[in-house]
Amino acid sequence: MEPQLTPLIDSLPSTVPFVGPEALERKRNRPFRARLGANENGFGPAPSVIAAIQESAAEAWKYADPENFDLKRALAAHLGIAPTNVIVGEGVDTLLGLAVRQYVQEGTPVVTSLGAYPTFNFHVAGFGGRLVTVPYRDDREDLEGLLAAVKREQAPLVYFSNPDNPMGTWWEAAEIERFIDALPASTMLILDEAYGETAPGSALPPVDISRSNVLRMRTFSKAYGLAGMRCGYAIGAEKQIGAFDKIRNHFGMNKLTQIAALAALKDQAYLKHVIARIIAGRERIAQIAAGNGLQAIPSATNFVTIDCGRDGPYALAVLNALIDRDVFVRKPMAPVLDRCIRVSVGLDDELDYFEQQLPQALAAVK
Amino acid sequence: MEPQLTPLIDSLPSTVPFVGPEALERKRNRPFRARLGANENGFGPAPSVIAAIQESAAEAWKYADPENFDLKRALAAHLGIAPTNVIVGEGVDTLLGLAVRQYVQEGTPVVTSLGAYPTFNFHVAGFGGRLVTVPYRDDREDLEGLLAAVKREQAPLVYFSNPDNPMGTWWEAAEIERFIDALPASTMLILDEAYGETAPGSALPPVDISRSNVLRMRTFSKAYGLAGMRCGYAIGAEKQIGAFDKIRNHFGMNKLTQIAALAALKDQAYLKHVIARIIAGRERIAQIAAGNGLQAIPSATNFVTIDCGRDGPYALAVLNALIDRDVFVRKPMAPVLDRCIRVSVGLDDELDYFEQQLPQALAAVK
Questions:
Q1: Which residues are in the Aminotransferase class I/classII large domain (chains A, B) (predicted)?
Q2: Into how many domains does chain B fold?
Q3: Does B269 touch chain A (CB under 8 A)?
Q4: Domain boundary among A266, A285, A307
Q5: Which of helix, strand or coil describes residue A247?
Q6: Between vectors from CA A241 to CA A239 and to CA A245, what angle results, nearest 5°?
Q7: What is the mean pLDDT of residues A114-125?
Q8: Are residues B252 and B281 in the same domain?
């Protein structure tokens, strides 16, 4: 008899949260001309960050500082909190997995929105949690519905993102704070703010590390343009942040990533410049949509979700027609949301190409 | 009531597997002059690898290919197996964590050597496994003892490394194969070959992916000089390798790491050059030890473990005296092994400095 997986692991499917654009390129045997599907930031990291990576490449033989001391100190100073209120990890995905592992056992109810971040769901399933999903309302995460589900299920964990992925919508800080105030003290909220930098300042509650039931997660993957380097961080009360140390991979961080993230954090001027370009890119995508008779959903992220005006199969056909035309985009898959496609802000020439191909894609599916 | 950790996570201590040299430097408020404690490879990655990292730094905004397609294909070709027999992860540490999670539930007995890799033990504890330890025999992992413990405990998982860390000793391939042949088919062996490249070829059994109960783990951290980039891989039967996909962090790999590892694998000439330097460094450390009346234990790794000739507290005093003199080294902590210190092969000037400081350290503790 061969080695037996645990019953839980054995029961898991072999699905993946997302198919990468490289896999699609291999399947098509042709590269994409516009990479607009993964909410990456084509403006890239700051020149100062690229230089920092290049200058430190020869240091790649050293393990990174397992305490992430310098980066945590810089983040803490930037946020006006203590380093003990920050944990750094190999991307928010890793931190989500660790957080789920801390609060979820087999059968534990976990509340999230139907159609929200698949990687969070992947981790919940991976630790045997029972996903309780709440439909979006008017293309936004339904805060009241999430709260009601938490109370009904006595769920110890609830997740949502603000601004939201995949819809790009957001709530103002006052609404988020109202949710937190109403949340049972024993329920941990993971507030995913991966797109926080591109949101209006009014959407982000002040950092409040006195809350023992809120973990806010942020990343260098989006506005900072470092998705390929894997660096995320969580902000919270000292005790809850400290619990990550019990199980995290202490030597998991990439040495060059620590250096890149530090450099990125220092170059706030470049961040400001990129955010302005992202906002301009959002407007341009909305105009392209309107020019084709489609409605863009207002976005606070680095992508724009476009209502294709009909049902899910129609939007899927539009998506496939774009992929056939070398435009990599993705789409929401949950009912009602699935009438949309999701287009990341890209470089001008990528948006030019999208603008050129969208009418043809729409014509092809009509 | 604040959010409650699961009973398992709550029960875990906040210890870390290792303290990093950076933490020691902060505590001492002084940098080390010789970084010889973490079995890093100070010769560094190949110039071709450094160039590849530098040339691709501007690509850091892209998520890495989640399938690790190119790297898996190159590794498979290098090893003469199929890509489906290889899984790539963010360092062997991450792969160890995933493997433990696949086979270990609360209370599952897991066999390892007393004083072997602490990070493996950290993962076993983190998933609630019950560690069953077997003392080393004559400074080598006790294969017979490990096998007996597996059978006695009906353990579904056993771990050892060949060559061994922290002692540097090794078994010939025939002994390893004899162990595998005698292992119950239902027990998974994790054979950690992190130091495989620096071992005599006769220590590594031919790659045999027909075995469903062996996972061999290798890394770019040691001979390839890329510890800071986090890239390890496991080799095994297709079904067992496929199980990693159920729970791994699909977008966890660093984009530049994929590029660096590919470049490193291509540059076998540099690898050969570095291995020759490592072997010369081992000889030099042994000579330095002998020159101070100490006995170096023969090593097949990139470090040399030196018997300080007395007991654990004495070796610890030697270690501390070296650290006081700006030489970063580590030491085994388990009984009997703890009479030793462990010195990584470093650059010539670091070994010069070690040679200069060791007599003073020994004098100070006498």
A1: 36-351
A2: 2
A3: no
A4: A266
A5: coil
A6: 100
A7: 97
A8: no
Q: Are B228 and B197 in contact (CB under 8 A)?
A: no
Q: Cis bond leading into A332, ω under 30°? A: no
Distance to chain B for A27, nearest Cα, Å: 12
Cβ–Cβ gap A3/B212 under 8 Å: yes
User: What value of ipTM does the predicted structure carry?
Assistant: 0.97
| Chain A residues near residue B251 by CB distance under 8 angstroms | 17-18, 20, 91, 93, 119
Task: Compare CB distances from A228 to B44, B226, B254 and report the shortest one's residue.
Answer: B254
| DSSP 8-class letter at A158 | E
pLDDT (tens, 9 = 90+) of chain B, 366 residues, equals 899 999 999 999 987 778 999 999 999 999 999 999 999 999 999 999 999 999 999 999 999 999 999 999 999 999 999 999 999 999 999 999 999 999 999 999 999 999 999 999 999 999 999 999 999 999 999 999 999 999 999 999 999 999 999 999 999 999 999 999 999 999 999 999 999 999 999 999 999 999 999 999 999 999 999 999 999 999 999 999 999 999 999 999 999 999 999 999 999 999 999 999 999 999 999 999 999 999 999 999 999 999 999 999 999 999 999 999 999 999 999 999 999 999 999 999 999 999 999 999 999 998
Q: How far is A313 from chain B (nearest CA, A)?
A: 27
- What does DSSP say about strands B340-344 and B303-307: parallel, antiparallel, or unpaired? antiparallel
pLDDT of residue B18: 85
Binary contact (A227, B12; C-beta < 8 A): no
Neighbours of B126 (CB within 10 A): 20
Size of interface A-B (CB pairs under 8 A): 268
**CATH assignment of the domain containing A103:** 3.40.640.10
Same domain, A189 and A281: no
Same domain for B196 and B259, yes or no, is yes
Residue B1 lies in a domain: no
Given this model, what pLDDT does residue B17 score? 79
Q: Which residue has the tokens 């809850």?
A: A240
Cβ of A188 under 8 Å from any chain B Cβ? yes
DSSP B200-244: -GGGSPPP-TT-TTEEEEEESSSTT--GGG--EEEE--HHHHHGG
Q: What is the mean pLDDT of residues A194-221?
A: 97
Residues A135, A23, single domain; the answer is no
A240 contacts in B (CB within 8 Å)?
Answer: 2-3
Cβ contact B2–A255 (<8 Å): no
In contact, A166 and A329? CB cutoff 8 Å: no
Where do we find the tokens 């309107």? Answer: A290
Q: Which two tokens stand for residue B49?
A: 């690898």
Structure tokens at A169: 């919508």
Instruction: Check B254 against A213: CB less than 8 A apart.
Output: no
* Residue corresponding to tokens 């220590």: B203
Total count of residues recorded for chain A: 366
Q: Is the domain of B58 the same as that of B151?
A: yes
Chain A: residue nearest B99 by CA? A5
Residue A126 in contact with partner chain B when CB distance is under 8 A: yes
